[in-house]
Amino acid sequence: MEADKAYLEAIQHGRYSEKVSDLRCKYDHVRIQFEDFITAYYLRPHLEKLVENKVNGSGDGLRFYDLGCGTGDGYELLSKMAGTTKLSEFDNRLIQQDMMSQYKGIDLNVDLLKEARNLFGDYEHVEFCKGNFSNGLPIEEGEYPYDLYFTSYGTLSHCNDEELEKLFVDVAKHGNSGSILLCDFIGRYSYEWQDLWTDNHEEQPYIDYLINYLYAEQDREKVEVSSFPLRLMSPPEVNKVLENASRKAGVELKVERYFDRSLFVGRHIETGTYNGNPQPLRLMVSSLFERGLRTYFPDLKVSFRPRKGFDWQNEALQTLADSWNALVDYTMVLMEHYDSDEELLPYPPQTKVKPLEKAYRVMRQTLEGSKGLYGDIRADLIEAQLGYALRSLEMNLQHGQGLAHGLVAIVRVVK
Predict the structure, then answer these.
(1) Residue 340 to residues 2, 123, 270, 328: CA-CA distances in angstroms?
(2) Is 168:241 a contact under the CB 8 Å cutoff?
(3) 356: which residues sit within 8 A by CB, 6+ positions away?
(4) What is the DSSP annotation of 145-183?
């Protein structure tokens, strides 16, 4: 496959498969604090239902099938999903080890599978094997259904519509009623590739994708990076494939919800590869979560340029950009008054955007409550709270329309 060469180059670069957190690597702070969190947040209620059904029914553990597992990212995310808990409670994971009876991960890349086995291969209930889902769901005769058929980070965009349809038909037939399919695609209208926007989807079905974001800006032009095609998707396009698959399988595949992930902090927001307006937003947001490092707030602001002829896309992204920038501006105002002897910090400006109103309030309370604490309060507390507040804005102002790096559909099998 064309993607194998590109992924091998990324692995050899050293920042793709290693489990390290850095400002510019696969496992940067945005990946952990934004992207993994958002996926887990929206998936969690559906997993809670699966757990409840198991506890009240057979009592068996959950079975997970990770399609395109890579280095085992799906296993790590699923096994560490946390929920609301009291501070005194020690283990707040939704899925305890005894509730996960089977995790099966497949991938075509043997180098990624090797790394996955090194990390998680010692668990008895975990299995990693080479498999190709472009020709349908790889299952053995008599293999039991899974509770969750999981994909992550654009995995299904490696398939064309015919391949997706065959995969969905197989999942519909193989899964139990109530099984969940998490479909992760590359969003059609991401601001990262604004140059590729089109309302004629057949005109631009794919993006010629490059993993050049691992390299610093000064190094990107010096290295030759292999590319591979990824299917751009919007909800209507996904719906069409699901409807065809449902009809052929004789089983309903019901979309529970769509959500967008990484509207302004996707991997290519700063490369300029597909958009002539690159910005260091992902790097700056990652910096907010880096302990001991102070971020230059003006570089956090979004410079959104609308594209003529795409009114609803421009309106949605502009609303988020305006709210994002207003929050950064207000935080800078708060910081200007932070070290003064004023009893009260400046109140925020009026806004009709409820998520922004709450974010204003959180930032003001954070700064007021942190006065007198020890350490580098700005770097280690205030900036992290700003990062979480920006994440909250993205989550509450997204509409699952394919406007982000990732478009994710949560689909339930209904029999």
Answers:
(1) 58, 55, 36, 20
(2) yes
(3) 323, 326, 327, 393
(4) P-SEEE--TTGGGGS-HHHHHHHHHHHHHHSPTT-EEEE
**Fold of the domain spanning 2-263+400-414:** Rossmann fold (3.40.50)
Q: Cβ(129)–Cβ(106) under 8 Å?
A: yes
Q: Sketch the domain layout of the chain as residue ranges.
A: 2-263+400-414, 281-396
In tens, the pLDDT along 273-294 reads: 999 999 999 999 999 999 999 9
**What's the rounded Cα separation, in Å, for the pair 28 and 289?**
10
Residue 138 near residue 67 (C-beta atoms within 8 A): no
Tokens for 283?
A: 């790097």
Which helix (H) or strand (E) covers residue 233, if one does?
strand 227-233
CA distance 64 to 135: 20
Neighbouring residues of 166: CB distance < 8 A, sequence distance ≥ 6: 135, 136, 245
Tens of pLDDT along 297-335? Answer: 999 999 999 999 999 999 999 999 999 999 999 999 999
- pTM comes to 0.91
